[in-house]
UniProtKB/TrEMBL annotation:
InterPro entries per UniProt: Rossmann-like_a/b/a_fold (IPR014729), Universal_stress_UspA (IPR006015), UspA (IPR006016)
Database matches in Gene3D superfamilies: HUPs (3.40.50.620)
Organism per entry: Rubus argutus
Pfam family, one: Usp
Residue ranges occupied by any UspA domain in the UniProt entry: 2-163
Name listed for the protein in its UniProt record: UspA domain-containing protein
């Protein structure tokens, strides 16, 4: 079985990763005796992080109506910062997997997270997608959009949306 867990910098996505590891990987190879292992019995997890592409927008400059493109150095700096952030996020995710003795692979992609995640589930033939939920209400979700809601309706596989624990949702 092939599971994909989407993570970003939010605590909710890491909670979803921990939840998935605790509930899906009960019989991971590290917890089953070697004599009891059979090929194909275990879940494989891919942790995916999607970065938004940097758009070289025009920035208005004063009241004269002039505008400028971001310089090449600014674009390179932003891309480098995004790469470093992705590396930190995936390193944290891999450490959680290691602590729970589950082997995982990581994947960094660029684009609109909801579209890229759904495309990746189809291309990688994922059996289950796990995403976290920020716990937005109906009105906020309608205005802000929701990656988890979009994935639930458009992914090519079953989707588990892991809500934050009750005490976290109540403190908002």
């Amino acid at each position: 079985m092939n599971a994909m867990v989407a993570v970003d910098e939010s605590d909710w996505s890491f909670y979803a990763l921990s939840w998935a590891l605790d509930h899906l990987f009960i019989n991971s190879p590290s917890t089953v005796e070697a004599s009891e292992r059979q090929e194909g019995d275990f879940w494989k997890v891919t942790v995916v992080h999607v970065t938004e592409p940097f758009h070289n927008f025009l920035y208005p400059a004063g009241t004269s109506g002039g505008a400028y493109y971001a310089t090449t150095s600014v674009v390179e700096s932003v891309k480098k910062a995004q790469e470093e952030t992705a590396a930190v996020i995936l390193s944290r995710a891999l450490q959680i997997c290691k602590d729970k003795m589950v082997q995982a692979e990581t994947l960094t992609m660029t684009g609109d997270p909801k579209d890229v995640i759904c495309q990746a589930t189809e291309q990688m033939h994922v059996d289950l997608l796990v995403v976290g939920s920020r716990g937005l209400g109906m009105v906020k979700r309608a205005f802000l959009g929701s990656v988890s809601d979009y994935c639930a309706h458009h992914a090519a596989c079953p989707v588990v949306i892991v809500k934050p624990p009750r005490e976290s949702a109540a403190t908002k």
